[in-house]
Design goal:
It is a single chain. This protein is α/β, with parallel strands linked by helices and 147 residues long. α6 links the parallel β4 and β5. The protein has one domain: Rossmann fold (3-Layer(aba) Sandwich), CATH 3.40.50.2300. It has 7 helices and 6 strands. The protein starts with 5 loop residues before the first strand and ends with a strand.
Length: 147
């Protein structure tokens, strides 16, 4: 995993999103976060074109925390559509599902997706963020990874 400077949060629960942004900034105030309360809005953001490829949102993103259960387009559908964007394929970054679901079927489905880096069960905590941002090690039993 490369150094984490820019995190995108995608969660339809505005309170969860706000709290997660605050937790990230408390742990590391140099990390920039962008919050989307809709997976559709997030996909539009990533599909946006800019003049210079070096400023494209996909190039600047290091990590996504993605909720599963959202209206209109769930997290699985979002990641499927994101994985078709050429810029993402050239410069993939880590995508962690961050969900309240501890359902083994959801976890299995998430981890079966090629571009899924892992699965975290809410709530997001300072310890989980520190581990991802600072040490980049596994987060114990609460993080399900492919390896």
């Amino acid at each position: 995993m490369r150094k984490i400077n820019n995190i995108v949060l995608i969660d339809d629960n505005k309170v969860d999103g706000f709290v997660n942004q605050k937790i990230i900034s408390i742990v590391n105030n140099t990390v920039t976060t962008k919050l989307f309360n809709s997976s559709v809005e997030a996909l539009e953001y990533f599909n946006a074109t800019t003049k210079g490829i070096e400023t494209h949102p996909l190039i600047l993103t290091d990590l996504i925390f993605l909720d599963i259960n959202m209206p209109v387009m769930n997290g699985f559908e979002f990641l499927n559509k994101l994985s078709r964007i050429k810029t993402f394929l050239r410069n993939p970054f880590d995508v962690y599902f961050l969900s309240s679901s501890n359902n083994e079927e959801d976890i299995s489905e998430a981890l079966s997706i090629e571009f899924c880096s892992g699965y975290l069960i809410k709530p997001l905590t300072k310890e989980k963020i520190r581990t991802l941002i600072d040490t980049k090690k596994q987060i114990g039993v609460e993080l399900k990874t492919k390896n």
